[in-house]
Amino acid sequence: MIDGLERFVNWYGRPVTASPRRLEDPPGAAFLLAALGAHAAARFAERIAALDLTPPQTGLLRAIAATPGQSQQALAQLLGTPASRLVGLVDSLADRGLVERRRNPADRRLHALHLTADGEALAERIEAVGREHDDAILGSLEDEERARLRALLARIAEDQGLTPGVHPGYRRL
Amino acid sequence: MIDGLERFVNWYGRPVTASPRRLEDPPGAAFLLAALGAHAAARFAERIAALDLTPPQTGLLRAIAATPGQSQQALAQLLGTPASRLVGLVDSLADRGLVERRRNPADRRLHALHLTADGEALAERIEAVGREHDDAILGSLEDEERARLRALLARIAEDQGLTPGVHPGYRRL
DNA sequence: TATTGTTATACTCTATAACTATA
DNA sequence: TATAGTTATAGAGTATAACAATA
Q1: Residue B18 clears pLDDT 80, i.e. is over it
Q2: In terms of pLDDT, which residue wins out, B46 or B3?
Q3: Disruptive mutation site among B25, B32, B64 for chain A (greatest number of A CBs within 10 Å)
Q4: What pLDDT is recorded for position B14?
Q5: What whole-number distance in Å separates Cα of residue B154 and Cα of residue B171?
Q6: Is A4's pLDDT higher than 50?
Q7: How far apart are the C-alpha atoms of A120 and B74, rounded to whole Å?
Q8: DSSP code, position B148
Q9: Structural domains in chain B?
Q10: Which positions in strand D are less than 7 Å from the protein's CB atoms?
Q11: Which of A137, A166, B5, B118 is deepest in the core (most CB within 10 A)?
């Protein structure tokens, strides 16, 4: 406090003399988190667009890579989305020969999802793109800072009950 | 490295023995940032829905509160959205008596935007909701950790060229 | 002719619910 | 009757482009 003036800190950690409601005095760190998260998501979407993939397609492909053989219902539950939404997404990947539906002979209602060889190869490309993306977003941080940030975010994610590896955007807004 | 096995760290910072592509081994911290950001945005949307506001309405109201008297074009530029989109948003706030368009007598094409008394009051409610939201998302962190997280996020936001106080969701995806 | 604000249109994404095929 | 998957429909949100008023 100087001269009775309250002091604030703007987005960038710089002290700012108090004045009624400035755009640089945001509601809080959670807003910063939301803004930065949207930015990161948009930049990632641009990168994977070069692979002709949308973010939901990418997430589904990763989920199938991680847990092959699951039914569409099971995947829908994991991702937190209606099963009807998966149909189109799986179609779009299957049409390109990245994913295949294997009917279960014992219960012909079930479609087990697997990656094809092309799908596996693309999954590895996605991982590489993810690393590039990570460097582009967090490049201004030292390795140690990056690790600290990751640890803090991980704590929050666990506390908030997020499913590891799943973007909550599959759920409503 | 133990026994030639690479070691990974999952979302929650726990070491994980290497195995081919697990959902718990995410592409990187930027993904965690995007996921957590979407979560925070969704939780905030729920809170302000109680004030009968959508996130874009809230952001616009905050922007007008911070820089009153601006034209819609100027605000569109600040928020990074087409001016045509502002029309409906301003309408929705003006119909509720939260915002008013004041014609400029010198140049009757211009509409200067201002908050009404009700709008000012709501802006303060929004700030309070923002603080509650912040506590709900970051409640598991100590004060010092929270400050450190904020500082790291602020560094990234500045490095990435985000406009302080503006959610990039006004821009495309 | 240029600019502010507005309207019209079309497109994308998504959830809900109805439908089919299998059980 | 119940479940997996699919299709149909409808709604929200948004960008693009045409338009009207004013300069």
Answers
A1: no
A2: B46
A3: B32
A4: 33
A5: 20
A6: no
A7: 48
A8: H
A9: 51-170 (1.10.10.10)
A10: 3-8, 13-18, 21-23
A11: A137
